[in-house]
Design brief:
Blueprint lengths: L2 E7 L7 H14 L9 E7 L13 E9 L4 H16 L10 E9 L12
Parallel strand pairs: 1-2, 3-4
Antiparallel strand pairs: 1-3
Pfam families: CHMI (PF02962)
Protein name: 5-carboxymethyl-2-hydroxymuconate isomerase
Length: 119
C-alpha cells in the first residue's frame, strides 16, 4: 500500500509513463510515509477523453493515490502537493496548457485485503 494510478491523454505526445511512475513513486517514498516495496504504480493512456463539453485538444494528466485510512489531513495534503510538484517534472518539453490533477483518497482499512505470495 499505497496504490498510485496515473492517467494521461494520448495527445500528450512523448509522455514517458514508466519514467513518470518512477518519479512519482520516488516522491511518495521521499514523503517518509511508505516503504519502497509498498508503493504500487500503474499508468493508463486514455484514447477517449474530453475536457469541457467539446474540447479534445487539451491534454491532461491525473494521479489518484489510494491510501489505507489513518493518515492525517495534513499528511495527505503534503503528499498531494509533493506528487503535484513531481508530476510537473514528468511532462515532455514543449507542452503548454496541460491540466495536472492529484487526488489523494482513503481506503477503508477494515475492508482492504492483501496477500503476498511466497516467492
Amino acid at each position: 500500500m499505497p496504490h498510485l494510478s496515473l492517467e494521461y491523454t494520448q495527445n500528450l505526445t512523448g509522455y514517458d509513463a514508466p519514467a513518470a511512475l518512477r518519479t512519482l513513486g520516488q516522491a511518495m517514498f521521499d514523503s517518509g510515509l511508505f516503504g519502497e516495496a509498498d508503493i504500487k504504480g500503474r499508468a493508463q493512456c486514455l484514447a477517449g477523453y474530453l475536457v469541457g463539453t467539446s474540447d479534445t485538444d487539451t491534454a491532461f494528466v491525473h494521479v489518484q493515490v489510494s491510501l489505507l485510512s489513518g493518515r492525517t489531513a495534513e499528511q495527505k495534503q503534503a503528499l498531494g502537493a509533493r506528487i503535484a510538484e513531481a508530476l510537473q517534472t514528468t511532462l515532455p518539453a514543449g507542452h503548454s496548457g496541460v491540466q495536472l490533477t492529484v487526488d489523494v483518497r482513503d481506503m477503508d482499512r477494515d475492508c482492504y485485503a492483501k496477500v503476498v505470495l511466497p516467492g
